[in-house]
Amino acid sequence: MSALQVGVVLRLPNGGSLGPQDLELIDAVRKERSIIGASRALGLSYRKCWLSVDALNRTFESPVVATFPGRREGGAEITPFGERLASIYRSIERHAAHSAKRTLDEVIASLNWSFQKTASDADKEPNQDRASGR
Fold first, then answer.
1. DSSP 8-state secondary structure symbol assigned to residue 4
2. pLDDT per residue over 37-65, tens digit each?
3. Would residue 119 count as lying in a domain?
4. Which DSSP state fits 108?
5. Is residue 65 part of a domain?
6. Which PANTHER family does this chain map to (predicted)?
7. How far apart are CA 103 and CA 109, in angstroms?
């Protein structure tokens, strides 16, 4: 049995968004120090990762990821603003999960434990692509 998870997606007033996939990308860029390395680590196309980084950087006045084309020691790094943004997002996630725990316990208590997903349930899954094109 897996634990119930609370997911947070911030839909920002300027049309941008920030969600779990963005944080995975930020973490991968931090670790790999490149967008292409992050794309390999996440199993995504370089183009998708690059477009996601570009969207993140355009969403905010300060860049989230700094890129350095041609640099041998890593072509990308998370900016101080990007680190702060990731920290804020994770804080929001923790607060949301903590605040919802009691109510979610009631939801868990009402689950049908013999439920099995069918092919038609795949249609009900949230779209894995980001609403903002990321």
1. P
2. 999 999 999 999 999 999 999 999 999 99
3. no
4. H
5. yes
6. DNA-BINDING TRANSCRIPTIONAL DUAL REGULATOR MODE (PTHR30432:SF1), TRANSCRIPTIONAL REGULATOR MODE (PTHR30432)
7. 10
